[in-house]
Amino acid sequence: MSRRPAGADRPEATGGVATGDRVLTVPNLISFLRLLGVPLFLYLLLVAHADVAAVVVLAVGGTTDWVDGWVARRLGQVSRLGELLDPLADRLYILATLVAFTARDVVPWQFTAALLARELLLLGSLGVLRRFGYGPPPVHYVGKTATFLLLAAFPTLLLAAAAPGAADVAGAIGWALAWWGLVLYWVAGAMYVVQAARLVRAARNAGASA
């Protein structure tokens, strides 16, 4: 990753797909709909106590994680807004689910704390990068894999809590996905921190030699 150059809209700057400034695009609409699913999920789980409906909303929000990006590349509608909305929707789903699940005793607070600590670490790294003129680092496949595992684990764990008959099987599968997701989430976080440290070191060396 580097500081955004003047020609960042060229296809070679974004992996062969041009990045534009359009807002009203199909993938951005999908991302907005995913964002609307976050408060709906919280209402269903914490207010209405409609666990089955909450499972459906969470499952749809998680399984459509890849749709907006695929549509953007397919239609040639990759945009800077979309590049921000996609990870934002992922993080909001994860954070909202953690808060709701901790409140409902679906997951222990230690698991929530471990995930939140990683988010705080990444937030601090982003703050340091911005001081040196860098934007957010590109999403790494390890981070995307961790997000996929977590978004698959959460509805499975909720199903285990909502359907006692499926608790043994769903619980085992859900926690296997959750722990693998947590480990990879921290691995991706460590990779981002190392990348940020290298960029900061390079910026300082460039400033010292100027």
Number of strands: 0
Strand content: under 5%
Largest sheet: none
- By secondary-structure content and strand pairing, the structural class works out as mainly alpha
Task: Please state the average pLDDT score.
Answer: 82
Cα-to-Cα separation, first versus last residue: 21 Å
Write the layout of secondary structure elements.
Blueprint: H1 26-47, H2 51-63, H3 67-75, H4 80-103, H5 109-131, H6 141-162, H7 167-209
Explain this structure.
The chain is mostly helical. Helix content is 74%, strand content 0%. The longest helix has 43 residues, at 167-209. The model is unreliable at 1-17 (pLDDT under 50).
How do you describe this structure in short?
The protein is mainly alpha-helical and 210 residues long. It is built from seven helices and no strands. Helix 4 runs parallel beside helix 6 and helix 6 packs antiparallel against helix 7.
For the structure shown, list the relevant keywords.
single chain, 210 residues, mainly alpha, 74% helix, disordered N terminus
